[in-house]
Amino acid sequence: MIAIGEYNTLTILREREQGLYLCDEEENEVLLPNRYVPESFKIHDQIEVFVYLDNEERPVATTDKPYIKRNEFALLRCNEVNDYGAFLDFGLVKELFCPFKEQAFKMKAGQWYLVYCYVDEETERLVASSKTKRFLDNKKLTVEKFDEVDLIVSHPSEIGMNVIVNEKHLGLIHKNDVYRDMSIGDRFKGIVKKVRPDNKLDIVLSQIGYKSIEPNADLVLKELNDNSGFLPLNDKSSPEAIKELLQMSKKNFKKAIGNLYKQRIISIDEDGIRLKS
């Protein structure tokens, strides 16, 4: 079956005036319009295409790469708002529709919004929703403490920054663990710091405990190499100075340089740290 809103690997069935007709193993067909037809091809070749509904609600294939596909989150720009809803740029000729009922806040043209893309059951067309929380579920977790996870910055709260974890769960980076600038839609790697009894997830951007020593030490080494072997930081530096230069907490910085010092890779001096020759 040809999947709407996803990439499909299909077989070139025949060529016609309007383009190529492609089919799947069940002989379902879809048109690849001329503008997307590759320069060279053979009948029965396979081709990867993205399938969605055109302006006349007919399935159509494209070789363009959309910014978002079915069951994904992405930050998209609103191009237009009319009486029915908002239309978002998702990288294809046709825009992605977000009805008013799926808008957490009324969208405005020119603004960017974090949305979830899904197929509407009634119309079978791709639609967007900025009410992203309802597409996340913490009842059945697929992550554990210390797991590395993919994060999408969702929205700020009074106690920190809410993040989407592996595009499945909702997590929180507490204010004390935010050591870099974050904007809605930014993507980072993170670590599950704690799984609370109610399945709420505490997330950090760097490894914790002893697991933090190696990656943070590597970061310090990289900065040293990029700065002629010297950084104007030591264990007496302010947390603000460390955060500005390394986007790292003072606690993790002290662990990192302590580890490097024990390995005799660096010296810790009054004016900063140096690579040993």
CATH architecture of the largest domain: Orthogonal Bundle
CATH class of the largest domain: Mainly Alpha
**Taking all residues together, what is the mean pLDDT?**
92
Low-confidence stretches: none
Query: How many domains would you count in the coordinates?
Result: 4
- Any idea what the CATH superfamily of the largest domain is called? Winged helix-like DNA-binding domain superfamily/Winged helix DNA-binding domain
Written as H for each helix and E for each strand, in order along the chain, the element string is: EEEEEEEEEEEEEEEHEHHEE
What structural class should be given to the helix and strand makeup? mainly beta
> What name does the CATH topology of the largest domain carry?
Arc Repressor Mutant, subunit A
Helix content: 10-25%
Radius of gyration: 25 Å
The largest sheet has its strands arranged as 3-2-1-4-5
Give your account of this protein's structure:
- There is one protein chain.
- The chain is mainly beta and 277 residues long.
- The protein has 4 domains: 7-62, Nucleic acid-binding proteins (OB fold (Dihydrolipoamide Acetyltransferase, E2P), Beta Barrel); 72-133, OB fold (Dihydrolipoamide Acetyltransferase, E2P) (Beta Barrel), CATH 2.40.50; 148-205, OB fold (Dihydrolipoamide Acetyltransferase, E2P) (Beta Barrel), CATH 2.40.50.140; 210-275, Orthogonal Bundle (Arc Repressor Mutant, subunit A), CATH 1.10.10.
- The chain is built from 3 helices and 18 strands.
- A 5-stranded antiparallel sheet has the order 3-2-1-4-5, with no helix packed on it. It has a 5-stranded antiparallel sheet with strand order 8-7-6-9-10, with no helix packed on it.
- The longest helix has 14 residues, at 213-226.
